[in-house]
Structure formats: C-alpha cells, structure tokens
Amino acid sequence: MEELFNIKGKNVVITGASSGIGENLARMYAQYSANVALLARSKEKLTDLAEELKSKYKVEAFPIPCDVTSEEQIIRAVEKAVSCFGQIHVLVNDAGVTEKSEDFTTHTKEQWDKVINTNLTGVYLVSKEVAKNMKEHNYGKIINIASTAGYMGMFNQISYTASKAGVIGMTKSMAVEMGKYNITVNGIAPGYILTKMTNPNSSGYRYYKSRTILGYVGEPDYLRGTALLLSTDASRFITGTTIVVDGGSLSNS
Question: Sign of torsion, CA 114 115 120 124?
Fold first, then answer.
C-alpha cells in the first residue's frame, strides 16, 4: 500500500506556491520526500519557503518567480524547472485570484481579464509548457485546482465562477489529449477553504459553513490527501475527472 502512494524523489512543479493551498501542498510534497519547484510572483516568499523545505525535509526546492499571466515568464520558468530536474513528474496548477463586484453589470473588463488570465489562461499556458516535458518522458500527472464555484452560481464573482468552470472543462480535454502519453490530468474542486482569499468574519463564511454536511469549512490541509492520491500510482486509472473536496456542500444544495 505504501508503494502505491510513494512520491519520494519525484519532481513537482507548483504554481501559486507562495501562500494558501499552493504553499500547503508544497509542504506536503516535501514532507513526503518529493522535490519541488515553487512558482509565484513573490520571490522573497518563495526563497524563504524553499530554504525552509530544504532544511527541514532534505529535498531539493527551487524558488522560481513567475507571473502566470505572462507567457514569456512561464516559458522561462518551466525551462528553469527542467534545467533543475530534468524530468517533471507532477504539475499542480494552483495560482489564482478573485475580483468582486456588486453584480456582473458592475464587473469591469479589467477585473474580468485579471481573473481569467490568471485562473484559466494561466493553467492552460503552464500545462502546455510542462506537458511538453512529460510527453518526452511518456509520464506525468497534472492537477488543476478548480473550485465548487465552477459547478454553481456565486454572488459577486462572475469572472471567478467562469474561470473555474473553464478549468473543469479544460481538465477533461487535456486528459483526452494526453492519455496516449501516459499523462493523467485531473482537478480538485475545493469548497470554502480558509486562505488569504477568504474571510472567516464574512457572511459568505457563515453561509458556506451552514451548507456543509460536516458543519465546518475547510482548511488547506484537507486537500493534501486528494493531491497525494492524484500524484501517485494509486491514481493510475483516474483521469479527466475533478474531485470535489467541500464537506458535502454541493450535495446539500
């Protein structure tokens, strides 16, 4: 059983690795002896995290500053990861932002572009570059962090909802195209997770807490098991699907 979930020595690229879910998953991978390439905009945070992971878990950890809205930066970042690792085994697309407005009639084009370019186009562009390396090695695991927002309507966040629905659909198409290269592509759709993008004192927090069957909202730690599953041979026959991790809130809608 341990061998099924073994990720020791694997090389993992994580976007959005400087905080929240991305940072938490980076810690999980390092804890299980995987090497990590940490991508985000904040060089200082990435450097501190990389040094911590190298010292604590004795793995390789590389801070690679990258804005996923820039194709040029993505190409350079993936080239850097390949030069560090040679082979990329796992990609986790976690970089994401949100923009709120009163309703979609007041949501500006600038807000829309910022969210779509980060949450959807960024996933496409990073996956495109990393998959080239995975195809060369006839192996890979791509994990796209979506959201339950992609399955339902949400107040005040039209671009975020659209972007996450797009990620869920794109995950399916990527899986169809990558299967012949022994590359699996799956998504994780968290429900309400406490990160810097969420506010435990908000009405939204109280609403989503009331919707979960389990009676409490999520922590970033709660995604670790699903991410580990999708990164290892335990998921070798799972592809093209998005696993919902939301305490049962969708089932209770």
Answer: positive
Q: How far apart are CA 202 and CA 131, in angstroms?
A: 39
Give, in degrees to the nearest 5, the angle at Cα 126 between 11 and 134: 45
Specify the residue for token string 């990590």. Answer: 36
Q: Give me the tens of pLDDT residue by residue for the chain, a chain 253 residues long.
A: 678 999 999 999 999 999 999 999 999 999 999 999 999 999 999 999 999 999 999 999 999 999 999 999 999 999 999 999 999 999 999 999 999 999 999 999 999 999 999 999 999 999 999 999 999 999 999 999 999 999 998 888 999 999 999 999 999 999 999 999 999 999 999 998 887 767 777 777 787 788 899 988 899 999 999 999 999 999 999 999 999 999 999 998 7
**Sign of the four-CA dihedral 218, 220, 224, 226:** positive
Please report whether residue 2 resides in a domain: no
- Which of 160, 192, 208, 222 is catalytic? The answer is 160
Note if 160 is an active site residue.
yes
Residue 21 lies in a domain: yes
192: helix, strand or coil: coil
| pTM across the whole model | 0.96
* Domain assignment of residue 182, given as a range: 11-245
Q: With contact defined as beta carbons under 8 Å apart, do 156 and 207 qualify?
A: no
Which of 165, 181, 177 lies closest to 119 in space, CA to CA?
A: 165
- Residue 181 sits in a domain whose CATH number is 3.40.50.720
Mention every residue, 6+ apart, whose C-beta is less than 8 A from residue 248: 212, 213, 214
